[in-house]
């Protein structure tokens, strides 16, 4: 008796694979993922998922994911932030926020903000900051740094006295390391969730 094709289960397995690996599986990997003994058994579910626009097949036969698997969000146009203007909703493209915000996934991490020392830079308690390790900060980059054993997030600067960190809140003062300072990464984006 032929096995029934549970597309929902296959989609969940592919999403899980994408979250772990950041890419589409090969046919051999899909066979293992779906519990099949051979790569040939994968062709039927793959064709069904292509028909449903979850997968695409390149001219060379390689499988790729669409935004239905990777979690892309539709870009419908632009909105005027000044004076109101007529708007037309038109699907322009789909975007995956990871691809938009993260240039180097292997060097990127998120931190939850606590404290208000960067509030004038638009970074509030509870926000998430996307931080990329390994870069050399420039003046006015916002960095996550360990200063004399304590972690903080501030504007990076350098003058004739050496490096310093500036807050974005007039209630706080400039920090200069007394013993050591190590840069943990440069802030690349801020994420705030409303309601």
From TrEMBL:
Gene Ontology MF terms in the entry: DNA binding; hydrolase activity
InterPro entries referenced in this protein's UniProt entry, alphabetically: LexA-like (IPR039418), LexA/Signal_pep-like_sf (IPR036286), LexA_repressor (IPR050077), Peptidase_S24_LexA (IPR006197), Peptidase_S24_S26A/B/C (IPR015927), WH-like_DNA-bd_sf (IPR036388), WH_DNA-bd_sf (IPR036390)
GO biological process, one term: DNA repair
Annotated signal sequence range: none
Domain of life: Bacteria
Pfam families named in the record: Peptidase_S24
Keyword annotations: Autocatalytic cleavage, DNA damage, DNA repair, Hydrolase, SOS response
Chain ranges of the Peptidase S24/S26A/S26B/S26C domain: 75-186
PANTHER family: LEXA REPRESSOR, LEXA REPRESSOR-RELATED
Family: Belongs to the peptidase S24 family.
Protein name, per record: LexA repressor
């Amino acid at each position: 008796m032929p096995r029934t094709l549970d597309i929902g289960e296959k989609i969940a397995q592919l999403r899980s694979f994408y979250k772990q690996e950041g890419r589409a599986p090969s046919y051999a990997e899909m066979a293992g993922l779906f519990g099949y003994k051979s790569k040939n058994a994968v062709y039927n579910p793959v064709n069904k998922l292509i028909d449903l626009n979850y997968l695409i097949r390149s001219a060379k036969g390689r499988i790729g994911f669409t935004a239905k698997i990777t979690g892309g969000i539709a870009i419908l146009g632009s909105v005027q932030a000044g004076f109101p203007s007529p708007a037309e909703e038109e699907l322009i493209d789909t975007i995956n926020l990871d691809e938009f915000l993260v240039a180097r996934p292997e060097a990127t991490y998120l931190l939850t903000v606590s404290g208000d020392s960067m509030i004038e830079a638009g970074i509030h308690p509870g926000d998430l900051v996307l931080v990329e390790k390994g870069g050399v900060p420039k003046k006015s980059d916002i960095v996550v740094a360990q200063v004399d054993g304590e972690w903080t997030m501030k504007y990076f600067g350098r003058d004739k006295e050496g490096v310093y960190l500036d807050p974005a809140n007039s209630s706080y003062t400039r920090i200069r390391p007394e013993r050591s300072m190590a840069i943990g990464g440069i802030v690349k984006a801020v994420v705030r969730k409303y309601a």
